[in-house]
Amino acid sequence: MASPTHQTDQRPSPAAGSPLAIELRKINKRFGPVHANKDIDLAVKRGSVHGIVGENGAGKSTLMSILYGFYHADSGEVLVGGQPVTINNSSDALALGIGMVHQHFMLVDNFTVIENVILGAEDSALLDPSIDKARRELQRLADEYGLAVPADAVIEDLSVGQQQRVEILKALYRGADILILDEPTGVLTPAEADHLFKVLETLRDEGKTIILITHKLREIMAITDTVSVMRQGEMVATLETTQTSPEQLAELMVGRRVLLRVEKGPAKPGEVLLEIENLVVADDLGTERVKGVSLSVRAGEILGIAGVAGNGQSELLEAVAGMRAVRSGAIRLNGEDVTAQDEDSAADLRRKGLAHVPEDRLRMGLVTNFYEWENAILGYHGEARYGKGVMLNVDAARAEARRQIEKFDIRPADTDLKTANFSGGNQQKIVLAREMERDPDVLIVGQPTRGVDIGAIEFIHGQIVKMRDAGKAILLVSVELDEIRALSDRIVVLFDGRIVGEADPETADEGELGLLMAGVNQKEAGR
Amino acid sequence: MEDIISILVTTVRVSTPLILACLAGLYSERSGIVDIGLEGKLIASAFGAAVVAAVTGSAWAGLLAGIGVSLVFSAVHGLASINFKGNQIISGVALNFLAAGLSTFLGAAWFGRGGNTPPVSGDARFYGIQLPFAAELRDVPIVGPIYSGLISGHAIMTYIAFLAVPVTAWVLWRTRFGLRLRAVGENPKALDTAGMSVSWLRYKALIITSVLVGIGGAYLSIAQAASFTPNMAAGRGYIALAALIFAKWKPVPAMFACLLFGFLEAMQYRLQGVDLPVIGPVPTQAMQALPYILTILLLAGFVGRAIPPKASGLPYVKER
């Protein structure tokens, strides 16, 4: 039962003796005018963990999609196990023993684990034999690699970490020898990420080959044997992980020196500008998501809220921004009670000096079909300087947009370009520029750098610290623990709608925060 | 007893096209394709079946023609919503208009009876089938009326409809095709990344949909009635969709939902003009409105949260 599927025979056998699991030679791929992959060479050793880093749009995903059969390379050669192959679709890739764990899981949420595992790899027209076989096989994989998942549990009842394990199991069940993981830790708690890395190490020790795509340099340093860096469609370097450093990798990725640490002096907290007391907020389905949160943010400080996504951060942010009705509790801005009881108080709050950079820029921060200048004044378009009555003073709006573009280095510097055509980092800068240029007293920021490149992250972090130094109160929510630690002057950890701990970013260690984020309280953690 | 049996017999008869259309919708929506065009397909296949049966004199040829017409309509719907990623509601509504208009127009042009087709009889029509021992058991108490009166004596389509319910349940939950069908309506990407064709799977579902709704249409015009009359489906396609939501896209509850609607319709025939205590004679119109009022009530409040297949109504576009 070493190889569980019938596809085994088609695969070049390891005995064929190439030390390389995968070799790419001079791969080229263009999308219209965009040269996404330029003469890419890549050699991945059998039984190694090979990291691929690069900014958004560097061509990592395109390259992996070519390997997984989603795209066809314009030119170039793909060798698997030393043999040239043609991969036309995902089934070809699977037949060659290449499995992929996508960033957004490809699972059917209302199916059980076992149904997801066999989907597309059923042995016969009737399900029962396949299910029985999969059950035995899952048990074996669980024993061998520490990948235990309840076989009959429904996916939507599982934690994100367990769902990811199902994705890995799917690939292994199909007999994958080569596993591609695309940004696998983005949604995991630190503890889950550690567990994933242990699993990956076990897999490597068993002779599997792992390709890890990530933008987290710490992970590259921790788990990979070899790392390749891509920049603007080119493979700029392949290095032994032990021979490199995060600073060197960052420089290779961006093409210039990058500051990985946020430079900031000590905070000079002033009076309390934002105060939240016993706040209870429910989501759209009526489930309580924030269960009695109290906190206060002072002028000149950044309060960071750490936590795994889905523990009430979104509802908390929306309630404070006036976008979501509050069940009970109070929110005070500059001492004035501004607790939202209905959903149209957001505009009111903005007039009172609260700016909001929403978590999801595409859904809440921007209208991507609008021109850049329209988004640059969105939400403030009723102000007198943009026109009287029903008329909009387009020139004034464009002038403001140009000012923001210059100040925030938004590229391309074109006020009349559709916002959808800007990169993620530049879209985020458009939102930040709009909210920060309003000179608010209180700024609440959700996921300021989600999907943003290292270079832009550096800039955005700098701007947030600048706001703090100008005496603003900043409430920061991020699922990136590193970001919370780098920016915050104080950290609170949110778990299941409650604040379960507070920490000083200077002294807090990651393990402790990780346990808090996973819902283990400090007393238990101490044991 | 006889009254009850007679109402139940009517219930079964009027439920037959509902069940067929409802199961047809189930396959389609489970695969991720909303089929508001069920109504149009019922009309078109009823028309097709009536015309061919009248012309050839063969009920079976009529049935095949009904299925064929429904397949053509589904092919158009599939082309619009699978290949061209169009809006499925618009495509379905367009087919409804087309079916209603075209059937009346062609009927009038060909037969000149105000859109009606010539009545069929003999071999050109489906009659009730006497099940084995129906005659012998007729006088046995309880069993007799139920078996000989209620269960026996329906057209073949009725048996197909009721048989299709457990078969559908079995297909959905116990077969590879069912697993993939349920998956493609929930998360087509999961299938695509596992190396399967989303489009082909959706076409397969549409073929089953067409066959079922085609049988339902033929039942209307050459089994239940003896000819096609304009707008013969009378909203049954929509009621079937309502029943599907009511049943939360599950086959056995779908059958019961359809039987409930059928029962109301049967009661309506029964209660027309009957003097009820206190109320007095029941206005015909009030009774006729009953199934529709029930639809609104059920969908507005009594169903609870009916969560459709997540990807239903969404064309599948690969991210490239």
Written account of the structure:
The complex is a heterodimer of chains A (527) and B (320). Chain A is of the alpha/beta class and 527 residues long. Chain A contains 18 helices and 20 strands. In chain A, helix 6 links the parallel strand 7 and strand 8. In chain A, helix 13 packs across helix 14 (424-436) and helix 14 packs parallel to helix 15 (454-469). Chain A is globular and about 70 Å long. The two termini of chain A are 42 Å apart. With 320 residues, chain B is mainly alpha-helical. Chain B has a domain at 17-233. Chain B is built from 13 helices and two strands; from the N terminus they run ααααααααααααββα. Chain B has helices at residues 2-30, 38-56, 59-83, 88-111, 134-137, 143-151, 156-174, 176-186, 188-193, 198-224, 236-246, 251-271, 284-302, and strands at residues 275-276, 280-281. Chain B has a two-stranded antiparallel ribbon. Chain A binds chain B through residues 68, 70-71, 89-94, 100, 102, 106-111, 115-116, 118-122, 124-128, 130, 170, and chain B through 173-180, 182-183, 186-187, 189-196, 310, 318, 320.
